[in-house]
Structure formats: structure tokens, C-alpha cells
Q: What sequence folds into this?
């Protein structure tokens, strides 16, 4: 299953469906003239889950609500670092709890990633040449090792069905200009550091995270290239945190009590799904070119439980399905 820009998962009177990505659906509120507004979006988090660049056929119940509520909580914790895009949580009943009304921003055309620990794709890069996204790291690090300091390891923003590729810092400068590149680098690292300050008090390690930024007040003509507009007029624009933040879909969460460098870490994120897909139990191979199989009930239940546990452990709140 792949997301289609023509698919409209929800029938929402007063809103026009704009786009469906891997796990989110975008709608624009209709103005008094019946036309979609250009300044706002309804961001709906579905229960879809993606892995290895595929949108899986099996949803994870309540996932969208968990991620939305967790992002709202984190936006509050990060408000003194960077403004966020949320306007209101007053949304249509059909998407209550899983949707927010947000500003429509000029989104930066790069993925902003920060790492505090070495694992995943960063580990593979490190093993090849002792760097991650061009950042040199010391010898002797292993899977799960804490880095000397958090690092900025951006990537390209690939279309659906394609894989984000590591992007050296110079590539970010080329995409959005030197001033903006430095600002988003520092903000991304600061968000991960703040997240870890809070999470470690609750027994959770944030190994890495991906965040999305947009620019407030940068008008872009429909024919204008976004990256060109950002480079030419975006240096002094206000940076706004968008999409989701510090959730199990955008970050790696590890239980602090079981952290042990030198092996794969237990996690609260969708690694549980990835591990099943690459196990003999799934009968699927990443190199097959075929879509992954449906998830069995026990994997769905365990994955949902991981997401809910992460939310409750971090926020101190009890998750209530909508």
C-alpha cells in the first residue's frame, strides 16, 4: 500500500483534501467563498505505519492519537526554544484527538536530524569511515554508544517510496543558505538536548530525532521554487517547528534501565515492527522488491502498547482513546 494524493480517508465537511503522505493526511479549511484557505491546514495523523519506505497494509490502532497528543505535549515543553505551528485543537469530531489546525508555512526542503547516540543508518556510516553525515567521530564507538556531544546529521527529503539520503552540512547550506542552515542546525540539536533532559528524568533515552521546520511569513508564488525562495528571502524569517516532534515515529526511544552499548537496544518506537519484518517469521526480504506482508495481531498489539507506554511514561498522563 502506498499513500496517494488522491485518497481522502475522511469525509470532512468544510475541508478540502490536499494530500496524503505516508502517515498523515492534509486538508485545507474552506473559506467563506468555498475555496480552500491558503494560510491554514488541518493535519491529521492516521493509524498507518511505515517501514523500509513502505506504508504497511496493517494499521496500528490509536497510533495517530498517541502521536498527536505526544507532539502537543512536547510543543509545550519546547515553547521557549522555538514557536510551533499549532493554531487550534478544535477539529471535526471524525478526527478528534488525532488532528490539529496549523499554520501553512514555507517548509524547509531538508530533513533536520540530530543524534545523541550511535545506531541505525548512522552506525553503518560510522563503521564505513568513522563519520556520520560528514561529522568525524572518535574510534571505538559501538551500536548504542553515547556520542561525545549531540550532532546534526541532516538528510534529503525524499518523495514517498524513496529513501532519505545523508546530507553533509555543506549540502544544507547549498539548499537553504548559510544563515538558515546554522539556525536550524543549532535548533535541532537544542531540541534533542532538551528532549533528553526531560526524558532521562522519566527513565527514557532519546537516541536521535528528526524534526521539520517551516518559515513564517515567507510568501511563495505558486510557480516559485521553494528552495530558491528560502535561499533568497528566508535568512531572517521566523523559524517554526512543524509536523510532529519527539514521537516514536520521528525519534528513537530507549528504556534507560536496559541501555547497554554494543548491541541493539530495546525500544519504544517502530523498531518492533522493523524487527518482525526482517525476521524469518515474516517470510519477507527487504531486497525482494515486494511490499511487506500484513502484520500479525500480536505484533500490532505489542506495537500499540509500546507507543502508549512511551506517551504515558514521558507525559505522566494516562492515554485515553478518542
A:
Amino acid at each position: 500500500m502506498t499513500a496517494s494524493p488522491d485518497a481522502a480517508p475522511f469525509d470532512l465537511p468544510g475541508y478540502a483534501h490536499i494530500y496524503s503522505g505516508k502517515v498523515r493526511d492534509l486538508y485545507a479549511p474552506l473559506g467563506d467563498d468555498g475555496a480552500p484557505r491558503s494560510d491554514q491546514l488541518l493535519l491529521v495523523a492516521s493509524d498507518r505505519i511505515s517501514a523500509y519506505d513502505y506504508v504497511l497494509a496493517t494499521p496500528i490502532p490509536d497510533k495517530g492519537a498517541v502521536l498527536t497528543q505526544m507532539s502537543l505535549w512536547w510543543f509545550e515543553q519546547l515553547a521557549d526554544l522555538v514557536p510551533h505551528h499549532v493554531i487550534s485543537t478544535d477539529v471535526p469530531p471524525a478526527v478528534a484527538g488525532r488532528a490539529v489546525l496549523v499554520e501553512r508555512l514555507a517548509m524547509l526542503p531538508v530533513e533536520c536530524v540530530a543524534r545523541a547516540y550511535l545506531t541505525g543508518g548512522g552506525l553503518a556510516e560510522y563503521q564505513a569511515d568513522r563519520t556520520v553525515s560528514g561529522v568525524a567521530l572518535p574510534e571505538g564507538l559501538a551500536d548504542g554508544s553515547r556520542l561525545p556531544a549531540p550532532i546534526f546529521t541532516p538528510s534529503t527529503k525524499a518523495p514517498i517510496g524513496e529513501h532519505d539520503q545523508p546530507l553533509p552540512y555543506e549540502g544544507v547550506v547549498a539548499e537553504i543558505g548559510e544563515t538558515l542552515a546554522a539556525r536550524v542546525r543549532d535548533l535541532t540539536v537544542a531540541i534533542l538536548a532538551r528532549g533528553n533532559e526531560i526524558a532521562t528524568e522519566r527513565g527514557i533515552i532519546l537516541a536521535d530525532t528528526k524534526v521539520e521546520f517551516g518559515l513564517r511569513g515567507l510568501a511563495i508564488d505558486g510557480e516559485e521554487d521553494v528552495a530558491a525562495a528560502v535561499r533568497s528571502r528566508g535568512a531572517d524569517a521566523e523559524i517554526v517547528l512543524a509536523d510532529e516532534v519527539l514521537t516514536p515515529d520521528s525519534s528513537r526511544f530507549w528504556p534507560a534501565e536496559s541501555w547497554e552499548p554494543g548491541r541493539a537496544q530495546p525500544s519504544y518506537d517502530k523498531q518492533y515492527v522493523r524487527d518482525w519484518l526482517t525476521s524469518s517469521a515474516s517470510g519477507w526480504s527487504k531486497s525482494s522488491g515486494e511490499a511487506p506482508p500484513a502484520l500479525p495481531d500480536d505484533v500490532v498489539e505489542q506495537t500499540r502498547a509500546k507507543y502508549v507506554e512511551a506517551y504515558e511514561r514521558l507525559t505522566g498522563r494516562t492515554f485515553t482513546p478518542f
Q: What stands out?
A: Residues 15-103 form a domain with the Phosphorylase Kinase; domain 1 fold (CATH 3.30.200.20). The longest helix spans residues 178-200. Residues 30 and 36 are 4 Å apart (CA to CA).
